[in-house]
Amino acid sequence: MAPPRAVARRALFLAATPAVAARRAPRQLPRISSQRASSTTSTTTTTTTGPSLGSGVRTAAFVTGLTLSGVAVYIYTTDTRAFFHRYVVPPLLRFMYPDAEEAHNAAVSSMKNLYSLNLHPRERASVLAANGDPDISVSVFGTHLANPIAISAGLDKHAEIPDALFALGASIVEVGGCTPRPQEGNPKPRMFRVPGIDGLINRYGLNSRGADNMAMRLRERVRRFAKTIGVDELSVLNGEAGVPPGSLLPGRMLLVQIAKNKETDESNVDAVTKDYVYCVQQLGRYADVLVVNVSSPNTPGLRDLQAVEPLTKLLSAVVDEARKTDRKTKPRVMVKVSPDEDEESQMEGIVQAVWASGVDGVIVGNTTKRRTGIIPPGVGITPKEQMTLTETGGYSGPMMLGRTVNLVKRYRKMLDGQSWREHVQEKKAVDEAVDASIAGIDDTITGIPKEGLAAKPEASNNIPSTGNTAEQKVIFATGGITNGRDALQVLNAGASIAMVYTGLVYGGAGTITRMKDEIKKEVNTSEA
Ligand SMILES: Cc1cc2nc3c(=O)[nH]c(=O)nc-3n(C[C@H](O)[C@H](O)[C@H](O)COP(=O)(O)O)c2cc1C
């Protein structure tokens, strides 16, 4: 924190050297001594040096006090636990920006500016490191994450503030959704609040600046990071900087979400696949995990891609392209599925496509088109809010939690189904046998040593590349998670990570810190 530290250092310096401080003291202070000097000669010496020294010390003390107060205010206001992050900022944003999208844009640009000035809210490491705290770390794709909380897609649509979001304490940040070509999204207004039930409705329609633009921004971020630590861009991307190439932070992961353009005909699977593949080519290098979005309710036909055949084709193409990423360790691939496709046959189709394509995991949940069961019993909402609930778009809010927990349980069971694993293991055995015979032929012809072709051992700070297709599929949960207890519910249902969006909008910048504290308290209580 350059400015306050500079001020603090100067203040300490002034306090330690009163003579210098006295020289710099404001002019009116010596005037008191000159008045006294005119009364007697004998007092001249004492009055000119005495009060001047004393006032110098007082000034130094005053400046020091002021500075220390400034530092204290800085430390407090930039701490995610400051009360106003929860009780002042969110209502103030709602008051100042009646349009929810304007509030969203203002929040993103404030975070961006505050981050560049090092004045952004952050979770201070010491906060959560109390002795005897239960361990809430999780391991995902071989990466050890300090906590199971993530920020889900749509908050940072254009990858403008991933670092500011990581600073809030999340171990995973998902940026996007990003489409191959820039698109405006739906006409405004397209985001609405239902504060009586802490809910939101949005029909953004995947407004995106396009994959080239996002890639440029993410590349610039990698370059800046490489420069700070004195290595080149490629070394960072190859994991030689000791951090995952996406998040650029130890023990964190950056997810980049990709989608198709609205104008791409959803019934033309080849064209759709081309859209996603282009995004992989542009963005794969900067992601720890690529997320295939086939579940946003605001792009016509997008959710039809969840049918087994187009989904298998699409996901297989994305996985293949991700494996070609020009980087030592390849990005993992996940698919984000809708909470509304919840019939057994629909879910089974998705699971089949996941296993057949080699995708590494599923993000279960998104906003819902349904409007049933979203008002808690006994809670009244205003006529205006009732009108808002009739807006077209995807609803998100705490009442989605029950559905999310239920879906996670069902997906966990289906994904772990023995039949899928056996099928993949059989296929893997056949593939390996074929590979081995081809390698044998290659060896005879070219003489390439076998170890030269073997997969390199993974660095501990890297996300290991997709390889073992029979390993358990990972689930991240999203939808209605707003506190630590909710997070524990989805984790106990079979998810590895609990993702938040709407909870942050209403709960403010301290939401994630609070959730982690709540998880720890819950764990402690249940262990007691
Ligand atoms: C304004 C807004 C924009 C969103 N944009 C996206 C998006 O671009 N891609 C996506 O997959 N999900 C998007 N979502 C869905 C969220 O990522 C999340 O899955 C959903 O809101 C449920 O979680 P929550 O209850 O914590 O909000 C958006 C949600 C909101 C409220």
Characterise the protein shown here:
The protein is of the alpha/beta class and 528 residues long. The protein folds into two domains: 2-38 and 48-77; 98-448 and 461-527, Aldolase class I (TIM Barrel), CATH 3.20.20. It has helices at residues 2-16, 18-23, 28-37, 44-77, 83-87, 89-96, 100-116, 162-166, 211-229, 233-237, 269-283, 308-323, 344-357, 383-388, 401-415, 418-446, 450-453, 484-493, 502-507, 511-527; strands at 138-140, 143-145, 149-151, 172-178, 191-194, 199-202, 253-258, 289-293, 332-337, 361-364, 394-396, 474-478, 497-500. The strands form three sheets. The protein has an eight-stranded parallel barrel, surrounded by five helices. A hairpin with a 2-residue loop joins β1 and β2. α1 runs antiparallel to α4 and α11 (269-283) runs parallel beside α12 (308-323). The protein is globular, with a radius of gyration of 28 Å. The two termini are 41 Å apart. 42% of the residues are buried. Mean pLDDT is 86; it is low at 1-48 and 441-468. The chain binds flavin mononucleotide (FMN). Flavin mononucleotide (FMN) binds at residues 152-154, 157, 177, 191, 200, 202, 204, 206, 257, 293, 296, 336, 365-367, 396, 400, 478-481, 500-503. Keywords: Flavoprotein, FMN, Membrane, Oxidoreductase, Signal. Pfam families: DHO_dh (PF01180). Residues 137-416, 453-521 form the Dihydroorotate dehydrogenase catalytic domain. This is Dihydroorotate dehydrogenase catalytic domain-containing protein. Residues 1-22 form the signal peptide.
